[in-house]
Amino acid sequence: MAYEIEWTAAAVRELRKIDRPAGRRIALAVTALAEEPRPPGSRALAGQPPGVMRIRIGDYRVVYQVDDHRIIVTVVRVAHRREVYRTL
């Protein structure tokens, strides 16, 4: 069963700031989350509510929340690895 993908306004703004090739790789990785919301290499974030995960795409990180009851993946942050965890 495919999950619906939602983006927060902040995540969309962050994605637009990233250069095009990296942005395309990130968009493809997020699209793949619809079929497999917990792909190999994804990690649950410590100190966050259950279901908050992250995937790595090169030097960038995508932080997202999986809601298994509503079958939704919400992209919360997209940023460079140096910056992504600062405001969570």
TrEMBL record:
InterPro entries with a match to the protein in the record: RelE/ParE_toxin, RelE/ParE_toxin_dom_sf
Gene3D superfamilies: RelE-like
Protein name as annotated: mRNA interferase RelE/StbE
UniProt similarity note: Belongs to the RelE toxin family.
Residues that span the membrane, as ranges: none
Taxonomic superkingdom: Bacteria
Annotated keywords: Toxin-antitoxin system
NCBIfam families: RelE_StbE (TIGR02385)
Signal peptide range in chain numbering: none
Any single Pfam family the record assigns to this protein: ParE_toxin
